[in-house]
Specification:
This protein is mostly helical. The protein is about 65% helix and about 0% strand. It is built from ten helices and no strands. It has helices spanning about 5-20, 30-45, 55-60, 65-75, 80-95, 105-110, 110-120, 125-135, 145-165, 170-185. Helix 3 (about 55-60) packs antiparallel against helix 4 (about 65-75) and helix 5 packs across helix 10. The protein starts with a helix and ends in a 10-residue tail after the last helix.
Length: about 190
């Protein structure tokens, strides 16, 4: 995922624009709440022990349409919802014109730090920690909003990256699958916002 951030930002933002999510100007608080909603959906999927089955998905793709296979084997699973968290953050990066990273070399050294701080937590506790990261900015940071958002979005994305690694999730593949599915959906995916 890390090496494809710019691509993912462009794809997520373009899809959101095409599907009407940016027809009206929205606040950062609104957009962050949508990300937090996806974190909550990931917790619900974990509570229900719902996980994607990419083997069955790939087998089914040989004879059935992508959307049908996605809905049956991937949609509403932990992997799908974690991908949604990233896609929402990617879209926000595009919307606010933010690059969510500092030095790639610095970020790539953080897995042990992540494991030490968050690795022993339950899934729900890790989700709470991610939510805390997302709301760690303050409206008083407005003079350096781009820098603050770059940091918050970057840390959140790398949190999810390491979270997925620890769970053995191929996050890039799941993001690709969800973006393909999202591109086929209707206006605002049938929602009010």
């Amino acid at each position: 995922m890390i090496k494809r951030i710019d691509e993912f930002i462009g794809r997520a933002y373009d899809t959101a624009v095409k599907h009407g999510f940016h027809d009206e100007k929205t606040s950062i608080e609104h957009q962050l709440m949508l990300v937090i909603g996806e974190v909550g959906e990931a917790v619900e999927a974990d509570r229900k022990n719902r996980h994607a089955d990419l083997g069955l998905f790939d087998d089914a793709l040989r004879t059935r349409p992508f959307d049908e296979c996605f809905k049956e084997y991937v949609k509403d699973t932990v992997e799908d919802e974690i991908s949604d968290v990233c896609i929402r953050i990617f879209d926000m990066c595009g919307y606010f014109g933010v690059k969510p990273y500092r030095s790639m070399e610095e970020i790539l050294t953080l897995r042990d730090d992540w494991r030490n701080e968050f690795g022993g937590m339950r899934f729900s506790e890790q989700a709470f920690a991610l939510t805390q990261l997302l709301v760690s900015w303050s409206p008083t940071d407005v003079n350096n909003m781009n820098g603050v958002l770059s940091h918050v979005f970057g840390v959140a994305l790398f949190f999810v990256h390491y979270w997925a690694l620890e769970m053995g999730i191929d996050l890039s593949r799941h993001i690709d699958l969800k973006m393909k599915y999202n591109a086929s959906r209707g206006y605002k995916h049938g929602k009010n916002y």
